[in-house]
Amino acid sequence: MADRSLRGIRLGAQSLQSEEGVVFMERQQTSYSCDTCGHVTTLMFAADAEPPATWECRNCGAEARLQIDGKSVEVEDNSDKTARTHWDMLLERRTRAELEELLEERLAFIRARRGAGEDPTRERIGA
């Protein structure tokens, strides 16, 4: 046990593991060029991974486009897709008649809880 003693080593500053038997994954080098500042960003991805078409430029923060064989890849414009609202998602699950029925049930519950038929002589505090 004396030959593996930790005495005198800076714990946390050095790793006790070696790189023996470690097989690294195949990698590909990918370049992105920024049209705004002209900066080229080079990143490494796994060989079987599909790199994204755009990447944020490290210099100016603008959108940099993927370079393949020295040419920029055309980015598809998906701006025609509109965002779904809460109302759209509700209509996917229920019909309008069901929603109106649920609304009436809920309003009746709230009115009953508030005491819509209260004694008119009772003074209200607040609003």
UniProtKB/TrEMBL annotation:
<feature type="binding site">
    <location>
        <position position="39"/>
    </location>
    <ligand>
        <name>Zn(2+)</name>
    </ligand>
</feature>
<dbReference type="Pfam" id="PF13397">
    <property type="entry name" value="RbpA"/>
</dbReference>
<feature type="binding site">
    <location>
        <position position="34"/>
    </location>
    <ligand>
        <name>Zn(2+)</name>
    </ligand>
</feature>
<comment type="subunit">
    <text>Forms a complex with the RNAP catalytic core and with free principal sigma factors.</text>
</comment>
<keyword id="KW-0862">Zinc</keyword>
<keyword id="KW-0479">Metal-binding</keyword>
<feature type="binding site">
    <location>
        <position position="57"/>
    </location>
    <ligand>
        <name>Zn(2+)</name>
    </ligand>
</feature>
<feature type="binding site">
    <location>
        <position position="60"/>
    </location>
    <ligand>
        <name>Zn(2+)</name>
    </ligand>
</feature>
<comment type="function">
    <text>Binds to RNA polymerase (RNAP), stimulating transcription from principal, but not alternative sigma factor promoters.</text>
</comment>
<keyword id="KW-0805">Transcription regulation</keyword>
<dbReference type="InterPro" id="IPR025182">
    <property type="entry name" value="RNApol-bd_RbpA"/>
</dbReference>
<protein>
    <recommendedName>
        <fullName>RNA polymerase-binding protein RbpA</fullName>
    </recommendedName>
</protein>
<comment type="similarity">
    <text>Belongs to the RNA polymerase-binding protein RbpA family.</text>
</comment>
<dbReference type="InterPro" id="IPR038638">
    <property type="entry name" value="RbpA_sf"/>
</dbReference>
<keyword id="KW-0804">Transcription</keyword>
